Every structure is written in structure tokens, then in C-alpha cells.
Amino acid sequence: MAKNTICVWYDKDAEAAARFYSATFPDSAVGAVIRAPGDYPEGKQGDVLVVEFTVAGIPCIGLNGGPAIKHNEAFSFQIATDTQEETDRYWNAIVGNGGQESECGWCKDKWGVSWQITPRALSEALSAGGGQAKRAFDAMMTMRKIDIAAIEAARRG
């Protein structure tokens, strides 16, 4: 286990989520699946308790802690993309697998975890500052999934 690991709380589907992420994003994998050595408030001995996984190179653990804690946008995975095809592929994988669209490149997977599918073209436009950034920002504010061509057109004015 890495020295610093992100812990993501799930009701009961940490293993399913980890397997979905590892099948969807490069440099992702499922590691150890740890079963409860005894009964606990939200499960019983032998249930999957913790899953070690990596998402796009980031070490994580999924904890099946029960329904008491819900995900919100205060935590999200941000995936930088290079092309519209890559943006579409990740967005469609998350939303098409029981997830939901949100605003400005954000979506949620079916477990309620938030994702930002962010084209580098958007980040570069916002970093440029001035009128380019303002025009790109205004364009982004009208979008759900980010349209790179529209961001680049707005940036140019």
C-alpha cells in the first residue's frame, strides 16, 4: 500500500466500482480484495470490506462502509483528456454505466462518485488569462460534457 492513499467510501459496491474504473481508465488496476474477518455494523464476516485499486496512476482504497455517508462534489476525480474522442469515451463510459451528467465537464458514476472529464484545451484556455480565458469560461458554463472545438473557437474569439 502506498504511503498516501485516497480512501473512497462505498455503501457495498467498492469492488464493482474498482473493476469498472480499472476497465475504463489507463494505468488503473484492482489490487487486494480484503474480506471482513468478523461481523460489523453494515456487514458480516467474509463480505468484501476493502478493495485496493489504482485509478489513472492514483492509489486508492474502496471501503464498504455502508449507506451512512454519501458522496458529494467536495471530492472528485479529475481526468485530463487530450482529444474529443478521449473526452467522449470517458464521459460516455461513466454516464452510460448508470451515471449522470452534471455541468461544466462534471458527471457522477452510478456509485455517486464525481468525475471531472477535463480537456487540456480547456485548462490551457483558462490559464491563458484575459479575454481568451473569459470567452472559454463563458463557453464552458453552457456545457455539460466539454466540447473542445467550441472551447477553442471561443478562445480565438
The percentage of residues in β strands lies in 25-35%
The overall pLDDT, averaged over residues, is: 96
Structural class by SSE content: alpha/beta
One letter per element, helices H and strands E, the order comes to EHEEEEHEEEHHH
Strand segment tally: 8
Spatially, the strands of the biggest sheet line up as: 1-4-3-2
* Helix residue percentage: 25-40%
Main β sheet profile: 4 strands, mixed
Overall geometry comes to: elongated
Number of helices: 5
| Alpha carbon gap, first and last residue | 48 Å
Poorly predicted runs of 5 or more residues? none
- What integer value in Å does the Rg equal? 18 Å
Structural write-up:
The protein is an alpha/beta fold and 157 residues long. It is built from five helices and eight strands, in the order βαββββαβββααα. It has helices spanning 14-24, 84-96, 120-128, 130-140, 148-156; strands at 6-10, 29-35, 48-55, 58-64, 76-81, 100-101, 106-108, 114-119. The strands form two sheets. The chain has a four-stranded mixed sheet with strand order 1-4-3-2. A four-stranded mixed sheet has the order 5-8-7-6. β7 (106-108) and β8 form a beta hairpin. α3 (120-128) crosses α4 (130-140) and α4 packs antiparallel against α5. The longest helix is centred in the middle third of the chain and has 13 residues, at 84-96. It is elongated, with a radius of gyration of 18 Å. The termini are far apart. The model has no long low-confidence stretch (mean pLDDT 96).
Task: Report a brief summary of the structure.
With 157 residues, the protein is α/β, with parallel strands linked by helices. It has helices at residues 14-24, 84-96, 120-128, 130-140, 148-156, and strands at 6-10, 29-35, 48-55, 58-64, 76-81, 100-101, 106-108, 114-119.
